[in-house]
C-alpha cells in the first residue's frame, strides 16, 4: 500500500517539475511568474491547504487595477484545475477560487464571474471529475464535484442579488439624492427570485458528500470553514429579505405566496443536515424561528384567501341557482298561458 502511494507522489512531483519548466519557458515574464505562483500553491507534494503567504501573493495580483494581470491569474488557476486528475490539486484550485470570491479584489471577482461568458450551472466544468485509482481519491472526487457546484451556485446567486454573499453592506439598493441615500425596495418578483436563489445556495451546501470524516484533513477543513462562512452570509441575506417582505404579503398574489411558502419549506428541510455539517444548532435558533414564523404567517394568509374564495364561490352558486329557478318558473308560466 505504501509503495503505490510513494509512486503516485513521485509521479506528482515529476508533473509539477514539468509544469514549472513549461511556465518558465513562457515568453511573457509577468504571465510566467503568475503561473509559477499558482503551480507552487497547488503542488502534488502536499495534501495541506496552500499556505497563507501563497494565497496572499495570488490575491495581491488584483490590488492593482490591471485587467490583463487579473485575467491571467484566473485563467492560470482554471487551466490548472481543468488539466489535473488529482483530487488534492483540484481542491486546492477550488480553494484559491473560493478565496478570490471571498477575499479577492473586485476586478479578480469579476474575471471569475464572467468565466465562461455564458455563466450558469457547470461553469467550472467539473461535474464528471472522477479519479478511481483508489478509494480515497474516489471519495475525494465527490468533494471536488460538490465544492465546484457550491462555488458555481455562489456566483449565480451573486449575479441574481447584484452583490456577492460576502458583502457586509445592506443588500438594499440605494440611490444618491444629494448627500442622502434613499433605499429602493426591489419589486416583489425580484424579491421572490432572490429568496429562491438563496435557498438554492443552502440546498447546494447541504448536498455535501456523506463522508464528512474527511473534514479531519487540513485541506477539507480549511475550505469547509469558507463554506460555513458562505452559509452565514446566506443566512444574513435571507433574514434581510424576510424582513423586507413586511406589508408586501398583503398585495402578493396567491401563486406568489404559495411559491414563497414552498421556498421556506425547502429551507426548513435543510436544517438537520446543516446541524450535522456545522454543529451550530444553538447559534441559529433565532434564524429558524424567523423562517418558521414567516412560513406560518404566509400559510394563514393563504388559508384566509381560500376561505374568502369559498364564500364568494358559494354566494355565486346560490345566485346562479336562484336565477335558474326564476327562469324555469317564467318558462313554465308562459307555457301554461299558451295552452
Distance between the termini: 108 Å
User: What oligomerization state is this entry in?
Assistant: single chain
Low-confidence runs? 169-183, 311-317
Order of helices and strands: HHHHHHHEEHHHHH
Largest sheet: 2 strands, antiparallel
Strand order of the largest sheet: 1-2
Helix amount: 55-70%
GO biological process, one term: clathrin coat assembly
Keywords: Coated pit, Cytoplasmic vesicle, Endocytosis, Golgi apparatus, Membrane
Domain ENTH: 26-165
Protein name: Clathrin assembly protein At4g40080
In short:
The chain is an all-alpha fold.
Describe the SSE topology.
Elements: H1 2-24, H2 29-41, H3 52-59, H4 67-82, H5 87-103, H6 106-113, H7 135-161, E1 173-177, E2 180-184, H8 188-206, H9 218-245, H10 254-268, H11 271-278, H12 285-338
Antiparallel strand pairs: 1-2
Helix pairs in contact: 1-2, 2-3, 2-4, 4-5, 4-6, 5-7, 5-9, 7-8, 8-9, 8-10, 10-12
Explain what this protein looks like in three dimensions.
With 339 residues, the protein is mainly alpha-helical. It has a domain of 108 residues. The chain is 70% helix and 3% strand. The chain contains twelve helices and two strands; from the N terminus they run H-H-H-H-H-H-H-E-E-H-H-H-H-H. It has a two-stranded antiparallel sheet. A hairpin with a 2-residue loop joins strand 1 and strand 2. The longest helix is centred in the C-terminal third of the chain and has 54 residues. The radius of gyration is 28 Å and the shape is elongated. It starts with a helix and ends with a helix. About 6% of the residues have low confidence.
